[in-house]
Amino acid sequence: MKFLGVIEGFYGPPWTVAQRSRLFARMQAWGMETYLYAPKDDPWHRQRWREQYPPEHAQALADLTAVARQHGVRLVYALSPGLDLDWNAPDDRRALTDKFAQVAALGVTDFALLFDDIPYSDDRAAQARVQVQAAHEVMDALWPAKPGGHFLFCPTEYCADRAVPTVATSPYLHELGTGLRPEIEIFWTGPQVVSPQIDVAGILEVNTALRRPVLLWDNLHASDYTLHRLHLGPYAGRPLELRAHLSGILSNPNTPLEPNTPGLHSLADYARADAGWTPEVSLDAALRAWLPEFGAAPDDTELLDGLRVLADALYLPGTLGPRAQALLDEAHALHGDSPAASAQRLRDASYSLRRVLRALEAGSNRDLLFDLHPFLIDLIEELHRLSAPQSGRGADDPAQFVYRGSLADRLLALGWAAPPRD
Ligand code: GDL
User: Is the CB of 252 under 6 A from ligand 1?
Assistant: First the structure.
């Protein structure tokens, strides 16, 4: 694969320069070489794409590019003009090339044009032709004399779910495949926007339609569509053979930066793995390597156990890790024959997570503490509440809801069973 790395491509507060610098250092250690700058909420990236970056923001982008380079990371700058780009308006066409020219002058050498999450036009083939023209016009303006850096492209139909009528027969994808210059890399997110599984057959199908190996924009660990969740699980659901049919993998991960370490570490591991690799073993290695960020020694097995419970509890979209599944089973078993033993195991898990929280509170990675804090508190509280000896407190005793006091939390605590209506 030609590309391995990270997309800052989520909706939500963009990472800070300091956070990105930390990310680049980690990427270097993991052997990742590509970072796509595409934060949906950088106004100049999408909403106000026509406007040039004001001086202080331009300087920040130039500095960021330099920091990336120091870490051996290639910063690819992406623009998302698709919300309201009018290809028939000469001013818009000029604004597009001028914007890329501004960023190129800051030292950026690689670019992307993104058309995800924009309105579809009635004639999708025509929409594709306009996008192809836009990409070529930008490339020719950027590199008039000789071929330049990499050029990446995100389609409007960027996963099988969005291909109309199908991947194989989509006029939109066909136009892109035949129209876009072969050196342009095209993003694809798999069968869905967030794809729990991606198989070789699906990738071969889209590669045929687009006439090149696609570049995977992987939303497996993304959390911007559900800020109540984080994804701390391994890179999973993609067979190793997939790698041979992709031009690369870029992960668009959790919105908070710090909790991305396990998933990205595991992705880096996957990219280089030999036969026999498993997501579970890879996650364990990632969690061990994460211990120092918690102020713990690399051989602190107690804290490692806490991290394992935490990662399994916040695993992957719609999926729990094995330890979290076992805890759920224990919670069910509280109604069974030996509730005391189950309560003890739930309590142990709560203590184990409490150790993680205490380590973070005492440690120096404050971002990591703040990113994980609400999730740790939720888990610790609920495990504790379930496993506490019956104290006679009612389920709606406010003292039970010190941390989780909102109406939504109280409704959740009532469970899913609907009360009788009459
Ligand atoms: C998307 C967006 C992305 C967002 C992700 C997860 C792509 C190509 N675009 O559709 O910005 O972070 O879903 O919500 O994935």
Answer: yes
Q: Which residue, among 226, 237, 233, 300, has the nearest Cα to 265 in the 3D structure?
A: 233
Residue 293 tokens read as: 């960020």
- Compute, in angstroms, the gap from residue 80 CA to the centroid of ligand 1: 12
Looking at residue 385, its pLDDT comes to 82
For 39-58, write each residue's pLDDT tens digit. Answer: 999 999 999 999 999 999 99
Ligand 1 centre to CA of 222 (Å) is 8
Cα separation, 30 vs 282, whole angstroms: 13
Q: Whose CA is nearest to atom 8 of ligand 1?
A: 116
Contact 184, 152 (CB under 8 A): yes
**Which residues does the annotation mark as catalytic?**
117
pLDDT at 388: 79
* Per-residue pLDDT at 392: 47
pLDDT, position 14: 97
- Strand, coil or helix: what is 416? coil
Ligand 1: centre distance to CA 10 (Å): 6
Q: In this structure, which residue's CA is closest to atom 13 in ligand 1?
A: 193
pTM (2 decimals)?
A: 0.95
Specify the pLDDT at position 361.
97
Ligand 1 in contact with 158 (CB < 6 A)?
A: yes
Instruction: Determine whether the shortest distance from the Cβ of 116 to ligand 1 is under 6 A.
Output: yes
Task: Provide φ and ψ at 342, rounded to 5°.
Answer: -65, -45
Residues 13 and 41 sit within 8 Å (Cβ to Cβ): yes
Q: Tell me, what DSSP letter sits at residue 45?
A: T
What's the 39 CA to ligand 1 centre distance in angstroms?
Answer: 10
**pLDDT of res. 233:** 98
| Positions in the chain short of pLDDT 50 | 391-392
pLDDT at site 414:
72
159 CA: nearest ligand 1 atom: 8
Is-contact 263 237, C-beta < 8 A? no
Q: What integer pLDDT is reported at residue 160 of this predicted model?
A: 98
Give the chain's domains with CATH numbers: 3-275 (3.20.20.80)
Q: How far apart are CA 410 and CA 368, in angstroms?
A: 27
